[in-house]
Amino acid sequence: MYASREDIEYDFGDDSKAESKTIKPNPNIDGGWAWMIVLSSFLVHILIMGSQMALGILNMEWLEEFNQSRGLTAWVSSLSMGITLIVGPFIGLFISMCGCRKTAIIGGILNALGWILSAYASDVHYLFLTFGVTAGIGSGMVYLPAVVMVGQYFQKRRALAQGLSTTGTGFGAFLMTALLKYLCTEFGWRNAMFIQGAISLNLCVCGALMRPLFRVVSEKHVVRSNSEDNQAKALSHSAETIRSNGVLSEEPEKREEATNEEVLDSVQHIETGGKSRSERSMYGLRLLKTVSQLTVTVRKGFAIWYSSYFGAASLFTNRVFVAFIIWALFAYSSFVIPFIHLPEIVKQYNLSGQNNIFPLTSIIAIVHIFGKVILGIISDLPCISTWNVFLMANFTLVTCILTLPLMQTYVTLAVVCALIGFSSGYFSLMPVVTEDLVGTRHLANAYGIIICANGISALLGPPFAGWIYDMTHKYDFSFYISGLLYMVGIIFLLIQPCIQKKHPREKSTEEAQV
């Protein structure tokens, strides 16, 4: 969408040819390796978000194994899903210091470790630490880089790329549910978690595919080497001229011979007398250099991270972005609550027979996949604003949430669920809208804040809905209250100035000149 200086690659020649050089985009932007980034992000969504959608299988096993209350056991899944998103701002610090590739590889190892250690759980509280916290943090360290890298590699088809990559959540929900059910049946839940931990190591491979987007500087190097060759030729020509004078050419040669003899003597002395000491000194120098480079990298990354949140150019000075955060606090729970209470509503209206043939939650999941892709294609059209598509999808979703309890037949519920699945495809537009607000440079930190707000919503939304049911003994109020809160978040977006007066592609040239 918006083009920044980081996205445009420059080739500079020497002074005589500077005016004839033109700006060339990196060939990997919107093509080439960019589609490998989409594949990597797609697999990350399958392995992380898909696995979290399938935790209901393990939740039943934990209930039977540990004989704890449903509320306490459900906190294991809630912690894992919530922490994955809540740690977003801190993962932004890792990305600023280490880059997306290293952060994702470390996160893959941590996520696999959480799954494997959970196989040896002795009680639910043990799972809080190993699965909820350890695996949750590891998931967050892979998820945020996967989203950020797609935003860096795409400009013209960014919404479509994000839509394709995030469809991994829907595919993962089907694949991981079937896989975990099979593994638990054949090997037991402990061995199933151990095997899933081994599968999660593939996240490291996904992280390795996240190659940084380097600038094309080959021509620049060629120009420099040519100029250096010209200088060398000029120096050698002048030296030959001096040597032709006779007397002046002898003194430099004698000085060079004397200098060479002194250097050879010193080298021989070092080799014979202090070889081991020099090796220790070189090792110490290398270690000191590594530590100093690491310190500079950490300080630079922390400075970027700190300035994004608390500096003069803080993200919180952007009023539309602050409204976007408030919206995110209410939005995610409205999408999660139907998955929790739909089975109870179906049972209440005696529709279990039809729902068993084709579950309503499956309708949401399937249409959700198509919604992400279609909304991404629509948003990339030249005459369409991503912001307007985002708002229309939100209005459709909140209307469906408020009207769903009024539907009492399977057909009407299926239609509303299909609309919920399609309109919730706006999740693929969230990174695009965030980048339109803050630019590519601050995307990691800004999107980290947004998914942190989503994590709080995912963590507190389901217990809040359960508390409402305990007070009213009706599931309807859970939908009404969550829908009204969701509407409050949308109103916060509407009362702020419009993000863009014209389409981002039309503004890309202006931003590149800033």
From TrEMBL:
Its domain of life reads Eukaryota
Question: Where is this protein found?
Answer: Membrane
What is the topology of this protein in the membrane according to its UniProt annotation? Multi-pass membrane protein
- Keywords in alphabetical order: Membrane, Transmembrane, Transmembrane helix
- Membrane-spanning residues: 33-55, 75-96, 103-121, 127-148, 160-180, 192-214, 320-342, 357-375, 387-407, 413-434, 446-465, 477-495
User: What are the recorded GO MF terms, alphabetically?
Assistant: monocarboxylic acid transmembrane transporter activity
Which Gene3D superfamilies does this entry report, sorted A to Z?
MFS general substrate transporter like domains
Please report the stretch or stretches of sequence annotated as the Major facilitator superfamily (MFS) profile domain.
Answer: 37-501
> Where is this protein chiefly located?
membrane
Q: Which InterPro entries match?
A: MFS, MFS_dom, MFS_trans_sf, Proton-linked_MCT
Q: A GO CC term?
A: membrane
User: Per its UniProt record, what Pfam families does this chain match?
Assistant: MFS_1
Supply the name of the protein. MOT14 protein
Please give the organism: Thinocorus orbignyianus
List the gene name: Slc16a14
